[in-house]
């Protein structure tokens, strides 16, 4: 949509902060208050890896920009409710970090952790897809959401313990896409134990990918054993 269209649409549907949902200027993504909070939540992959010392991950590198709390948590929850502004903001923040580590031209495609058909139908969209597409656009690389699938399951990840999540991750399926020699950037909303991203990375590597990089908007900076059962997925 062009800027004039967005301005007119805002008269009908006021633009709201991607985190706290207050009304904001038609061309803004977040309110000043949430921007300040997010600045304070900035973190690096090293902060997350520090909580996972001694663990091996199959990806070539991992990216994450916010600690999953306060405004970052609000933004991700709002994204799950269908609001798009936080996804756009986080997508461009992630793109900056990716660009500093990997020349975008080396990334063949951006994909995301899939959701089941039932859940997608219920929500009408997938929040990891929104983030993945924002990241792909910010990097100027193709987005491809047809690489992995998730089978439907009656279990939601937040109902599972950390160790059960590793098993739950098995419901992801690869497709027949040939990724021979490709570099794939895999995205998700939150990096917690890493089990979801690990499983999806393994599948992409099985499909021939030469390298997979993992990128999550936010991460939990606590050890997996400290994660409370009511916490979010991934
Ligand atoms: Zn706000």
Walk me through this protein's architecture.
It is a single chain. With 234 residues, the protein is α/β, with parallel strands linked by helices. It has one domain (41-226): 3-Layer(aba) Sandwich (Rossmann fold). 39% of the residues lie in helices and 15% in strands. The protein has nine helices and six strands, in the order H-H-H-E-H-H-E-H-H-E-H-E-E-H-E. The protein has helices at 3-12, 32-40, 45-50, 70-80, 85-101, 117-123, 127-139, 162-168, 195-206; strands spanning 61-67, 109-112, 148-150, 172-174, 183-191, 211-219. The strands form two sheets. The protein has a four-stranded parallel sheet, sandwiched between helices. Helix 9 links the parallel strand 5 and strand 6. It starts with a helix and ends in a 15-residue tail after the last strand. Bound molecules: zinc ion (ZN). Zinc ion (ZN) is lined by residues 17, 19-20, 22, 30-31, 33-34.
Compile the SSE list and pairings.
Elements: H1 3-12, H2 32-40, H3 45-50, E1 61-67, H4 70-80, H5 85-101, E2 109-112, H6 117-123, H7 127-139, E3 148-150, H8 162-168, E4 172-174, E5 183-191, H9 195-206, E6 211-219
Parallel strand pairs: 1-6, 2-5, 5-6
Antiparallel strand pairs: 3-4
Helix pairs in contact: 5-7
Strand content: 5-15%
The biggest sheet amounts to: 4 strands, parallel
Question: What is the name of the CATH topology?
Answer: Rossmann fold
Radius of gyration: 17 Å
Strand order of the largest sheet: 1-6-5-2
The end-to-end distance, rounded to whole angstroms, is: 33 Å
Named once each, the bound ligands are: zinc ion
| Helix and strand element order | HHHEHHEHHEHEEHE
How many structurally independent domains?
1
* Count of helix runs: 9
């Amino acid at each position: 949509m062009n800027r004039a269209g967005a301005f007119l649409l805002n008269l009908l549907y006021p633009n709201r902060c991607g985190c706290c949902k207050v009304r904001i200027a038609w061309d803004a993504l977040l309110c000043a208050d949430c921007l300040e909070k997010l600045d304070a939540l900035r973190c690096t992959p090293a902060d997350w890896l520090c909580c996972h010392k001694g663990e091996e991950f199959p990806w070539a590198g991992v990216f994450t920009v916010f600690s999953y709390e306060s405004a970052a948590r609000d933004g991700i929850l709002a994204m799950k409710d269908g609001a798009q502004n936080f996804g756009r903001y986080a997508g461009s923040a992630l793109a900056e970090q990716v660009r500093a580590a990997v020349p975008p031209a080396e990334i063949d495609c951006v994909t995301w952790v899939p959701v089941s058909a039932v859940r997608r139908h219920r929500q009408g969209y997938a929040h990891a897809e929104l983030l993945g597409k924002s990241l792909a656009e910010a990097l100027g690389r193709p987005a491809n959401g047809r690489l992995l699938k998730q089978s439907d399951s009656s279990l939601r990840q937040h109902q599972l313990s950390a160790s059960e999540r590793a098993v739950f991750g098995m419901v992801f399926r690869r497709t027949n896409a040939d990724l021979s020699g490709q570099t794939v950037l895999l995205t998700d909303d939150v990096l917690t134990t890493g089990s979801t991203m690990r499983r999806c990375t393994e599948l992409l590597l099985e499909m021939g990918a030469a390298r997979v990089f993992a990128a999550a908007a936010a991460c939990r900076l606590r050890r997996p054993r400290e994660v409370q059962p009511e916490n979010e997925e991934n």
